[in-house]
Amino acid sequence: MSMSTDPGKYRISDREREQAVELLNSATTEGRLTIGEFDTRSAQVYEAQTRAELDLIFDDLPVELPGAQGVVHANDHRPLEGSYVEKRDGKVTRDGEVVADQDDTKSLSFIEALHPFLWVGSITTSVWLATWVVSGSMSAFWPAFPMAVLLAVGVVRYITGTGNCDE
């Protein structure tokens, strides 16, 4: 069995694909990519088979791809030398240097957390009003039920930060 010295020829793992999509997401939130570019490149990441194909997707972005420092073989479960990554107290460090801080991430605004409530509420209320006008008699305000559930979910999303695009 011969070993290639070109790391670009090695096949990439699903984990590397997921990490690559996370990097694309970060590049999008930084304004380096549009949503359309993110969609296109994400599809390319999932179609990529080798390190070289993955490298081409990130050619114009200032990011370090996962596994770019060396090749990890399936039977080697040791971390790559010189790439010790630790997450503690909301900080991500690589080799002792802070590379990301939880405070740097974009937090979910209250309005963003309530988007489903606002959309469903406006649509169901419009249907209720149209039914009232057409029938001539006012019925119970049934949109209150789905709106109450979505309001509760939105408040929980805001408080917990769930649904944040950086997670």
Care to count the β-strands?
Answer: 3
What structural class do you assign from the helix and strand content? mainly alpha
Task: Determine the number of helices (DSSP H or I, runs of at least 4 residues).
Answer: 6
Residue-averaged pLDDT: 75
The strand order across the widest sheet is 1-2-3
Helix content: 40-55%
Oligomer: single chain
- How many angstroms separate the termini? 41 Å
Return residue spans where pLDDT drops below 50 for at least 5 consecutive residues: 69-85
What's the story with the biggest beta sheet?
3 strands, antiparallel
Shape, per Cα inertia axes:
elongated
Strand content: 5-15%
Give the helices and strands as they follow along the chain: HHHEEEHHH
Radius of gyration: 23 Å
Pick out its properties.
167 residues; 3 strands; 3-stranded antiparallel beta sheet; elongated; mainly alpha
Would you mind describing this structure in some detail?
- The chain is mainly α and 167 residues long.
- The chain contains six helices and three strands.
- The protein has helices at 14-29, 35-47, 51-57, 110-113, 115-135, 144-160; strands spanning 85-88, 91-94, 97-101.
- The chain has a three-stranded antiparallel beta sheet, with no helix packed on it.
- Strand 1 (85-88) and strand 2 form a beta hairpin.
- The protein is elongated, with a radius of gyration of 23 Å.
- The two termini are 41 Å apart.
